[in-house]
Amino acid sequence: MEQSGNGQAARRILVVDDEVTIAESVAARLRAEGFVVDLAHDGPAAVAAVQANEPDLVVLDVMLPGFDGLEVCRRIQVGRAVPVLMLTARTDETDQLIGLGVGADDYLTKPFSMRVLAARVQALLRRVDRAADRDGVAIVVGDLRIDVDQRRVWRADVEAQLTPLEFDLLARLARRPRVVLARERLLEEVWDWADAAGTRAVDSHIKALRRKLGSDLIRTVHGVGYALEAR
Is the separation of the CB atoms in 99 and 62 below 8 Å? Predict the structure, then answer.
């Protein structure tokens, strides 16, 4: 097993991009951060690499030959939940929402800086570690029930299938029901980073939660943030 500079097992990351220059540049930066990095350049190769190597995180481009990144994301999340940072050249919010809806945890729009990408990767891994260390507890707010230990959610006794990040965002809101939490605070506490441009990621995940659990679940306070209003 490969180790990082501090003697601990190095985290493994899969980088998937059909543009070889971009893939190798991302890999070089992540290796400099102490990660073990594998590469794939099309959809089928990406799915095979996830099955073979079980990476701790996947950096995944949307536009791929074979089948696209959205289909890759769907397929790899079936076996086990793995954090996905999606790369997209599309700025349309609908495209980003689709990516988040199939299991991506975060996205970066091309072109991006390697410094920002590395920071997002580190933040996603910290969030996963923090969730794993958290004691299991049930959260009940009105007809909403959240089993933190099993990471399952029900509303009116109907179970909803949430992505890992949707679950973490909902649990954060549910711990302080009817309290308005600013987008920037949610970015810091759920995503583990603060970036004004990233508030769109919060908005996209809120839309996904409303679609899965009901439009009345989360109240928008314009210019501020969101509050959970389950009754």
Answer: yes
- Long-range contacts at 197-201 (CB < 8 A, ≥ 24 apart): 198/106, 200/93, 200/96, 201/96, 201/100, 201/106, 201/107
> Tokens at residue 100, please?
């988040």
Spatial CA neighbour of 53 closest among 76, 85, 24, 27: 76
- Between β-strands 57-61 and 12-16, what pairing exists: parallel, antiparallel or unpaired? parallel
Q: Are strands 181-182 and 144-147 parallel, antiparallel or unpaired?
A: unpaired
Helix axes 93-101, 199-213, angle to 10 degrees: 60
Q: Can you give the length of the chain in residues? A: 231
- Phi then psi for residue 128, to 5 deg, are -60, -45
In Å, how far from its chain's centre is CA 49? 19
Listed in sequence order, the residues at least 6 apart from 179 whose beta carbon sits closer than 8 Å to its beta carbon are 227
pLDDT value at residue 7: 45
- Tokens at residue 175, please? 């711990």
178 near 228, Cβ under 8 Å? yes
| Kind and range of the H or E run holding 141 | strand 138-141
For 111, other C-beta atoms within 10 Å of its C-beta total 7
How many other CB atoms sit within 10 Å of the CB of residue 145? 18
Question: In this predicted model, what pLDDT tens digit does every residue of 7-21 receive, in sequence order?
Answer: 456 889 999 999 999
